[in-house]
Amino acid sequence: MKNKVVDCLVGLQWGSEGKGKVSAYLAPEYNAMVRSGGPQAGHTFFHNDLKYINRQIPCGVINPNCLLYLSANSLINIDVLGSEIRKYKIYPDRLMVDNHAMVITDKHINREQKSSLKNRLASTTEGVGAAQSEKIWREGYLFDHYAKEDPELYFFSNDTVKAINKQIQKKHPVLLEGTQGFGLSLNHGEYPYVTSRDVTSPALLSDAGISPAHYNQTIGVMRTYPIRVSGNSGPTHSNELTWEEIANRSVSPKPLIEYTTVTGRTRRIFEQDFETLEKAILVNQPDQIAIMFLDYICAGDYGKTKFEDLSAKSQKYIDNLEEILNIPITLIGTGPNEKHIIDLREDNQKRHPAEKPLEDLDGGLWPINFYGSDWDSGYIEEFLDRKMTDEKGNPFKRKIFC
Questions:
Q1: What digits encode the pLDDT tens for the residues 179-189?
Q2: Which pLDDT belongs to residue 341?
Q3: Within a domain: residue 365?
Q4: Which residue among 204, 258, 327, 378 has its CA within the 20 to 30 Å range from the CA of 285?
Q5: Whole-model pTM?
């Protein structure tokens, strides 16, 4: 019997649907969370009234009993990864990066910045596409190459496929945290205004090395008004609006405007794009829909946590949308805070994680040396069987924990 414990979280539009918020909200229900892709996509969420933006590490980081994996199809900016590791004080007994993940270097970033990508396609020029193409040409260096030269990275590097599948064998729920949105999929989006990989639920399973036999459900995330980044970022199949129009429609008492998480550009905003939604649903087959930014329909519903407390306008919007999509809308975002979610899920739509210490969740591949220890405990030298010096005998310069 196959353990169907793997869920997918995917964006159904053009990105920035609120996947970070939903992922963080669901984090307590999972023992493992997996992320693919690169640092050009930032996931924003609030926890204990503090704002966080994750560009590499899964949003499950807020759940101390959740193990974190960066899959083989990840593209790693070591500086970005290191800053997030420091921010959350993560040790290798919680985070594993696949040996086959590709590393983004200054060469990749410079190549994109000197290209026409930014003006032609509104690319973030974070080096992701250049690194991906080098991996395809089999000319690049993978994560394990850098890990062999850097003892700190060495402990984070391992075979995530084996580790994740051991979690599945133990029937521990796993969430695959998708990045970007269906409209940006390389093979199914509005080419050439796309990202450098596919961002569908089947692709997430492939990225993580998980058989479809273990797949349980997909949660599709969408917004009331889809967005794209500014500039020549490509079309949607609906009318473009101004932020003033959104504020007027929702009767917002203050101006509304959004900026992209990584580049800080003003976002373009559109009427609902049902053509892209229809195709996104066809390919991803979501079992549930999480809709965010309901306060853009009625600003008076900002922060509400019960469906019955919503305005008649918002309730009608949700009912009509659910009828059009023919998929249950189970999560409704009414604001940015973690508490600003209306949860309409039935119990069988929720996950129930194993309540066990991390030692029992290790999958047999985590560096046991780090349980209850730190970087200064002497375990690094013991594990590597060499001193913390480079080939010339100079002290090792830390990049991750400074």
A1: 999 999 999 99
A2: 97
A3: yes
A4: 258
A5: 0.89
